[in-house]
Amino acid sequence: MLDDDVKSLSKTHQRCSSCPVRHRAVCSKANADELALLDTVKFYKTYQPGQTIALRGDALEVLASVVTGTATLSQSMEDGRTQIVGLLLPSDFIGRPGRDTVAHDVTAVTEVTLCCFRRIPFENLMVDMPHVSVRLLEMTLDDLDAARDWMLLLGRKTAREKIASFLLLIANRSVMAGSDVTTQGIRIELPLSRETMATYLGLTIETVSRQFTALRKDGLISLDGTRTVVVPNFTALSAEVGDGE
Amino acid sequence: MLDDDVKSLSKTHQRCSSCPVRHRAVCSKANADELALLDTVKFYKTYQPGQTIALRGDALEVLASVVTGTATLSQSMEDGRTQIVGLLLPSDFIGRPGRDTVAHDVTAVTEVTLCCFRRIPFENLMVDMPHVSVRLLEMTLDDLDAARDWMLLLGRKTAREKIASFLLLIANRSVMAGSDVTTQGIRIELPLSRETMATYLGLTIETVSRQFTALRKDGLISLDGTRTVVVPNFTALSAEVGDGE
DNA sequence: CAACCGCCTTGACCGAGGTCAATGGCCGCT
DNA sequence: AGCGGCCATTGACCTCGGTCAAGGCGGTTG
C-alpha cells in the first residue's frame, strides 16, 4: 500500500503536539512515552484527489491515520459495479495490524494527508503501547457499528431516505466541526460528487440527482451551486430518514 | 442483555478443555493462566429458537461466546423494516467491552448455547489476558471485513447473486465443518428459514423463494425438502456470484 | 382423519429506481 | 468571446423486485 513512486506526494514530519487529530486518532490516549515511540516510526504523505492510496490484495506495509482530507474505502465486482464501504475522514485509521494484505481499495477524494507508520515496527511497538491498542479496538468497534448501520441503509431504505440519511450524516459532522449554523439553517459543504455519493449509497448518479431536486422542491433543502446544501429545518429532514435517527 | 427471567434457559458450567469452540473463540489464544481467570467469571445459558437474547439499547451486562446454535444480529426501523447485519455462529463473540448498551438486537434462530462473562469483571481481567484482547481485536477486524463484504452484496448485487452468495457462504462453512461431500455434490443444511434469509439478504420472502426455484430450474441446485440444498457443481454456482468469490 | 397452522410457492400486477440519451451550467483555456 | 470538458440535471422508457392474493405442503392436534 501507499505507493512510493508517486511524484505528487510530499513527505514531512510534524510535531504531534500541533496535530489536528491528536485528540481523536489512534494515538489519542497515548501518554508521553507512547507518543515518543510513535514518533520514531511515523512520517507524512499527501495524495491528490482521485489518487489511489491502496488496492485490495496489495502487500500491507503501512498503517496510517488520516490527518486532513477525505478518502473512500471501496469494494468492486468484476463487471465494474462498486460499493463504497466506508468514508475515511480526519482521525480515521487505515489498515489492520496482523494482516499482510489490503482488504479494500482506498482512494483519495480530496487532497489527503496521512500520518503513516510502517506496519511491522508499529505491530512490535503495540505491546509497549497499551493505550494505543485499546484505542484501536475502540475505533474498530465504532467502525463495525457504522458499517452495520450502513447495511440497514443499503438493504432497506428508499432512495429518498438514503439521501436524507447521508445529508444528516454530513450535517452532524460539520456542525461538530463548528460550521455555519445561522437563522437560515445549517449550511453544509458536500465532500463528495454526485457520482461518489451514488457509489456510497448504492444508487445511480441519476437517482441521486433526482432525489436532490425532489427534496429541494419539497422545501427540505436548498442548493447553492452543486456542492453546498442549506438545511432550513433539521427536524423536518430528520423525519425523512425513516428510523429513530 | 441476556434476560435472567426466562424459564427455558439452563445454567451449567463446562470444562473449557472439552469446549467445541475452544480453538476458535475469543479464548483460543489464552494460556492456562488466562483460561483459569476466565473460568472464574464464566457461565452457560441456553436460548430457544426465536427467543430474544438482547435488544438494542439494553444495558450491556454480559458478554458471551456462541458455543452451539445460530443467532442473528439485526437492526430495525420504526415501520418494521429490518435488516440482519450479522450472523452469529459457534465461536462468534457477542457484545463489546467498553460499551454499556447493546448496539443491535440479538435473536436466537436455532437453540443457542452461550458461554457468558459478566462485562465488568471481564473488562477488568482483560488487562491480565493480553492474548484475549489480541484475539478480540482480530475477531473484530474479521467481523468488520465481513460486514463490508456484505455491504457490496446489499448495495449492488441482484437477487440471484445474493442467493448464490449466501448458498456459497453456507456451503463453505459446512464443508469446513466436515459435512457431506459426495459424487452427487455438496449437501448443505440451511440454518435459516426463507423469511430470515430474506431479512439477511435485503429481499422479500417471495423473491427468495422465486430465486430458489429459478436456480433449481437452471440445474444449479436441487432441493430436498425446504431446508436441504444439494449443489452438484460448486464452480457453476460460484459463477453466479458476480465477483471473484 | 379432518381441521388447522406455519411455512413455502406461485401468479398477476405495479412501481421505484435503473438505463439510455439529450441538454444544461460552470469553468478553464486559447 | 468562443470552445471543450466535466459534471449535473432532466426526460422517456423499461425491468427487477416488491406487493397482494391465492393456493400447496407437511406436521400436529383433537
For the structure shown, list the relevant keywords.
DNA-binding, homodimer, Arc Repressor Mutant, subunit A, Jelly Rolls, 245 residues, 4-stranded antiparallel β-sheet, 2 domains, alpha+beta
How does this structure look, described?
2 copies of one chain form a homodimer. With 245 residues, chain A is an alpha+beta fold. Chain A has 2 domains: 16-154, Jelly Rolls, CATH 2.60.120.10; 158-238, Winged helix-like DNA-binding domain superfamily/Winged helix DNA-binding domain (Arc Repressor Mutant, subunit A). Chain A has helices spanning 32-41, 119-126, 130-156, 159-176, 194-201, 205-217, 234-238, and strands at 42-47, 52-54, 62-68, 71-76, 82-88, 93-94, 105-108, 112-118, 181-182, 185-189, 222-224, 228-231. In chain A, α5 (194-201) crosses α6 (205-217). The radius of gyration of chain A is 19 Å and the shape is globular. At the A-B interface, β4, β5 and α3 of A face β4, β5 and α3 of B. Chain A binds a DNA duplex (30 and 30 nucleotides) through residues 158-159, 193-195, 203-210, 212-213, 225-226.
Distance between the termini of chain A: 36 Å
Largest beta sheet of chain A: what is the strand line-up? 1-8-3-6
Specify which chain pair forms the largest interface.
A-B, 44 and 44 residues
The chain-level mean pLDDT of chain A equals: 90
Please name the CATH topology of the largest domain in chain A. Answer: Jelly Rolls
- Count of alpha and pi helical runs of chain A: 7
> Helix amount of chain A, in percent?
25-40%
The appropriate CATH architecture of the largest domain in chain A is: Sandwich
Rg of chain A, rounded, reads 19 Å
Principal-axes shape call of chain A? globular
Quaternary structure type: homodimer
Q: Please mark out the parts of chain A with pLDDT under 50 across 5 or more consecutive residues, or reply none.
A: 2-10
In the CATH hierarchy, what is the class of the largest domain in chain A? Mainly Beta
Number of domains of chain A: 2
What are the secondary-structure elements of chain A, in order, as H or E?
Answer: HEEEEEEEEHHHEEHHEEH
